[in-house]
Amino acid sequence: MRTKQKKQYTIIDLFAGAGGLSEGFIQAGFYPIAHVEMDKDACSTLKTRCCYHYLYAHGQLSVYHQYLKGEINQETLYGSVPTDIINSVINAEISDSTIDSIFQQIKKLAQNKKIDFIIGGPPCQAYSLLGRHKKDMDNDPRTLLYLQYGKFLKEFSPRGFVFENVPGLLSSKKGEHFKNLQMYFRELGYNVYFKMLNASNYGVIQDRNRLIIVGWKQDEDFGYPDIQTTELTATINDLLYDLPNLKAGEVQQISCYSHSTNQYLLESGIRLSDDTFVTQNITRSLNSNDANIYEYAIKLWNENGVRVKYTDLPAEYKTQKNEKSFLDRFKVVDGNGKSHTIVAHLSKDGHYYIHPSLDCCRSISVREAARIQSFPDNFYFEGSRSAMYKQIGNAVPPLMAKAIAESIKTQLV
Q: Looking at residue 1, what is its pLDDT?
């Protein structure tokens, strides 16, 4: 739930993406000095979110709402907050050639404030199981981005850090990458702890496993934080029930809720009590053959609890020759349970994320995907539809991030 609380501890968010991790930390009371991200659209999303937090804190949310409704443009929104708020988003790739410049920008923003924590996780595709099938990991520079992360630890000497990544980091190159990462951080003066966490244990209606590494200065070691779990009783149907029932191809940039809120949406902070409209109900169009497959898959799942395999489809629906791999390429989100993991491939197509309602017969919308990732409804994504899906799929669920941040905050003195 959104609260006005004094922001005492500072963070730098590296490889920030759309800001899911920092959103959770901000909700827990941390203050972001800077976000560093190479993707231009994600940086625009971060800037817009920074405007939201500033305007909320200063009782000027009407300006933000004007932007969401299209009554003012982005330039006017960004001009409504201090320049440092916009400049806190640094659009740059973190590399040997850029890192000194990034350091200088952060120091200017910090104005001699101490950096308490560094958070973030380098791009994880190189460590994913799918990524290993695509390219030689030894030649993928993304596998060594933890070295750049460490340079920020050395430069700013925070009390600790949170490093998020996919489970595959533990086993990539037979565990060598993770072993080297631990050794490197210890050499920099940090004790390293790690656990595999599932987002569904922290209020997120999604089965999403992530490796969360926590490091502490060796002279101030609190160990792994005791992160409070939440018993999840709500389902995807509870999560989506008040959103407009759109058909494939429908786009509603602004729309009214179809129902009043419910307990889960209020307690999670996804829909606030004063939210009067919702944005970015943007859906994909669908050709007639895929529509037939979606209908077949939805019926099979909802009526029999069976996941359709491509080989089981009626012959007239099959258009691809590959019947040996990716047989689950059409997958319905479980309306009566939790979603399977949202990933960035959602930006390519929606076949793996079919809406559970036969009345919709489409893949999930931008706003529905954002909710499954636990982003609040007032979180606005910039860029094309594909860019929005990519940002959402790559993000750390804010509710999970908030649970991590709150547990860390109790350890700090």
A: 43
